[in-house]
What does this fold into?
Amino acid sequence: MKILLSGLSKGETFKKILKKESFDKVIIFTSNKYVARAKKLLKKFQGKVYEVDAFDLQSLMQSIGNVIATLKGNIVINITDGTNLMAAAFLCTSYYQGFRTLYVSENNILEMPVPKLKKYFLTKTAKYWLNKINGLMREKRKKGLPEILTAKEISYNTRKLSRPLRLLEKAGLIKTNYHHRFKKIPLEKTDFIESLEYDEKPKKIRVRCIELTPLGVLYGKFINKQAVP
It folds into this structure.
């Protein structure tokens, strides 16, 4: 199934696209002011209209992401119509998800050169850990704590985190820093028990800390299913 997503305000650019390409379904996002007009325009096409806040980027990203999560098929996005923030939300969606993206000028329909980030780094395991990091950060935000995680806060087994964290950092979704702190080291340690006696001189250790970038926060909104690592 081929699906066209578009905004709508004063223009009707999606109609120009439909004259050159056929789609099985058309989905329009628009403000309350243009809902009735959008429904009237879609009478000739199989589609649906979603009312959104056209001036709230975060709300727009969430709405578009929620709708896309329910769709199955080849998605194409028209970034031409609607408010500037709607165009920004659609372009961000294309950038993160790798959808084909169209811009309609007066005489031409241009295909935007959008990098398909999903193809390069979003393994199921990386998606799982990004989702978990977002969840832990939300909990910290609610408690008013600094939005920084240590690797052990994410997973007790830090070794299995190495590759997905490397992929997420390479994609610009997280950033990592190393901080030093002092820790008392037990004199004896086995797999089952640590000694109750500690070295008098604390040892300086390096701790890996993870933060989400703005892209990581936005991309996390598109992750709707957790994958088992």
